[in-house]
């Protein structure tokens, strides 16, 4: 899988800019995972942390699902990977857990996020509520939060990828 990233436009309107940066960071995580085996994608960053590239992809699938389905659209969409019994389930793999399933699930959540966001203006409040505060949240806040979430985890992905095969870069 080759991932080409597109830099966000320098002179776009606010929505285009926010969505451009969000797409850029989604593409960055995909690029950090490109060309690796399932075993490499499951390598933990450093003991005792279970943080891995495949785990980050599964985590971001659940984050996309949470913000764009449960909060923004008000859907009943339980987590894909974590549960109350295993709060870090996205980082705990079984023999049957594949990269293809993780990647496809993540891409499905991204497509659903795009579709759900298209039905809202930046200032529109979510149909659902934050599980942390109980408040309805604007699409602008959700997009900004997701950019921050991806940027932080892409920093983790940089370090994990370098540990795996020495690859560095944006």
| CATH superfamily (homologous) name | dinb family like domain
The number of domains: 1
In which range does the helix fraction lie? 40-55%
Largest sheet report: none
The third-level CATH topology is: Four Helix Bundle (Hemerythrin (Met), subunit A)
- Report the sheet-strand fraction: under 5%
**Poorly predicted tracts of residues:** none
Radius of gyration: 16 Å
Number of strands: 0
- CATH level 1 class label: Mainly Alpha
Distance linking N and C termini: 17 Å
Structural class: mainly alpha
Secondary-structure element pattern, one letter each: HHHHH
Give the helix tally. 5
User: What is the average of the pLDDT values?
Assistant: 94
CATH architecture: Up-down Bundle
* Principal-axis shape: globular
General description of the model:
The protein has 170 residues and is mostly helical. The chain has a single domain, classed as Four Helix Bundle (Hemerythrin (Met), subunit A), CATH 1.20.120. Helix content is 54%, strand content 0%. The protein has helices at 14-33, 38-41, 53-72, 99-118, 139-165. Helix 1 (14-33) packs antiparallel against helix 3, helix 1 (14-33) packs parallel to helix 5 (139-165) and helix 3 (53-72) runs antiparallel to helix 5. The model has no long low-confidence stretch (mean pLDDT 94).
